Amino acid sequence: MISATLQECLRSKGTRYEVVRHPYSHSSAETAAAAHVPGECLAKTVLLEDEQGYVAAVLPSTHAVRLSELWAKTGRRLTLAKEADMRELFKDCDIGALPPVCTAYGMKTYLDESLTRHPDIYFEAGDHEELVHMDTDQFLSLMDRAERAHFAHRMQGMSI
């Protein structure tokens, strides 16, 4: 089910999208396979933290965050947030199914530029059985408060 926060974001921006249902999955690679979508077009959200608070990084599911790039961009020594923190911050989402609209949850969000190279984007709706699908222009409009940057690199062995 689409998280209430995400639903409000989609509604307030008048975003055109569709919901893609898929069998329950545990990881972004599993989700891409289960939903039959290219991993390059599936945006995943990684929650990071430091003593100043939380930051979200949104990148393709086939990529990993290069922390050194984010440290250089932000001037902060960010590390992966704990699962318990995710439960507290994203109360209307399942752990591991965070939608990319983290500015709606009150946190600074960075969007990796590599996601802008594809005509369509898919992302978690807040659970492990639904994705939101929209064209990239709609996605960029939805993510207008996110700062665009280069901080991701393709993981070895990940297919497109």
Automatic annotation (TrEMBL):
Q: Which residues form a coiled coil?
A: none
Any idea where the YbaK/aminoacyl-tRNA synthetase-associated domain is? 22-140
Please name the InterPro entries in this protein's record.
YbaK/aa-tRNA-synt-asso_dom_sf (IPR036754), YbaK/aa-tRNA-synth-assoc-dom (IPR007214)
Write one Pfam family the protein is assigned to. tRNA_edit
Task: Report the SUPFAM superfamilies cross-referenced here.
Answer: YbaK/ProRS associated domain
Offer an example of a GO molecular function term for this protein. Answer: aminoacyl-tRNA deacylase activity
Q: Name the Gene3D superfamilies for this protein.
A: YbaK/aminoacyl-tRNA synthetase-associated domain
Name of the molecule in the record:
Deacylase
